[in-house]
UniProtKB/TrEMBL annotation:
Keywords noted in UniProt: ATP-binding, Nucleotide-binding, Transport
Domain of life from the UniProt record: Eukaryota
Gene3D superfamilies per UniProt: P-loop containing nucleotide triphosphate hydrolases (3.40.50.300)
Lineage: Eukaryota, Viridiplantae, Streptophyta, Embryophyta, Tracheophyta
Biological source species: Quercus lobata
Xref: Pfam families: ABC_tran
GO BP term (any one): transmembrane transport
Domain ABC transporter: start-end pairs: 33-258
Gene Ontology cellular component annotations, sorted alphabetically: chloroplast envelope; membrane
Name under which the protein is recorded: ABC transporter domain-containing protein
PANTHER family hit by this protein: ABC TRANSPORTER I FAMILY MEMBER 10 (PTHR43514)
Gene behind the chain: LOC115962833
GO terms for MF: ATP binding; ATP hydrolysis activity
Length: 262
């Protein structure tokens, strides 16, 4: 069993020690993720403080599929880890609905049990469910990600994208309300990429309860999103509906190209 699976299985049980809380009263039910003025710095061995995130604020409505975009090194993964509770912000406040699940970039870090069925059922041990209830949850979750036909398959025989979908099914089976997904399509071929993104879209469409925040740098993936947050240099530059963010990034890219050419 590896670290990734341990985290996936235990995230709902052990709340992180920082300010993330599902009992905050000033956040309405229709907001799944609310970060306010989140700062994160690291201190080097020489004692120098290096800011990674600066005053990042974002609000993601419940039941929606949002993307977190921005150039390499702008702080997307760091912000996602703070939302997941893996890192604590230096200051600022973070609210994320629970239970939540963090799915990693590398598909081989996601699945550990011998079969698809066992892997999706893996996190359900803590819920004290009957065998029938476990089977029903596993079956519904695999259906949502389009993997029902793979119930008895050995996980070793799955493609990268299929492994990611099984990991997402594991989170859905645990009734996770928020999925935090970091560049899941990086290692995948085009077919697998589309399969994973459609699986997330379908999971949200089949349950009003689930919200997803998907980190990517692929602009074409925006067509599946309800909204997006755009970051640069450790700051949230803009957030809004997917079409507006796409326009904003294209204008920014062409201004950048003009600047280089001149
Ligand atoms: N523990 C750390 N020590 C030093 N620098 C760090 C640490 N963690 C992150 N950084 C730096 O913070 C910045 C943001 O990193 P992060 O991984 O969040 O970016 P990202 O937007 O996810 O990038 P990518 O698109 O390449 O995945 C980078 O410059 C990175 O080198
Ligand atoms: Mg990253």
């Amino acid at each position: 069993m590896n670290h990734a699976t341990l985290f996936r299985a235990s995230a709902a049980l052990f709340p992180p020690p920082h300010s993330t809380s599902s009992t905050r009263t000033n956040v309405t039910d229709n907001i799944a993720i609310d970060g306010r003025n989140v700062n994160f710095s690291i201190t080097t061995r020489q004692g120098k403080v290096v800011p990674i995130l600066r005053d990042c604020s974002l609000r993601i409505p419940s039941g929606q599929f949002w993307m977190l975009l921005g150039p390499n090194g702008c702080g997307k993964s760091t912000l996602l880890k703070i939302l997941a509770g893996v890192l604590s912000p230096t200051n600022g406040t973070v609210y994320v609905k629970r239970p939540k699940s963090f799915v990693f970039q590398n598909p081989d870090h996601q699945v550990v049990m011998p079969t698809v069925e066992a892997d999706v059922a893996f996190g359900l041990g803590k819920f004290n469910l009957t065998c029938g209830e476990v089977r029903s949850r596993v079956s519904k979750a695999l259906d949502a990600v389009g993997m029902s036909d793979y119930l008895q398959r050995s996980v070793q025989t799955l493609s990268g994208g299929q492994k990611q979908r099984v990991a997402i099914a594991g989170a859905l089976a645990e009734a996770c309300k928020v999925l935090l997904l970091d560049e899941l399509t990086t290692f995948l071929d085009e077919n697998d990429q589309i399969g994973v993104i459609k699986a997330v879209r379908n999971s949200l469409d089949s349950s009003e309860e689930v919200t997803a925040l998907w980190v990517t740098h692929r602009l074409e993936e925006l067509e599946y999103a309800d909204g997006a947050v755009y970051m640069e240099n450790g700051e949230v530059v803009m957030q809004g509906d997917a079409a507006s963010i796409l326009d904003f990034i294209r204008v920014r890219q062409s201004a950048y190209i003009k600047q280089i050419n001149s």
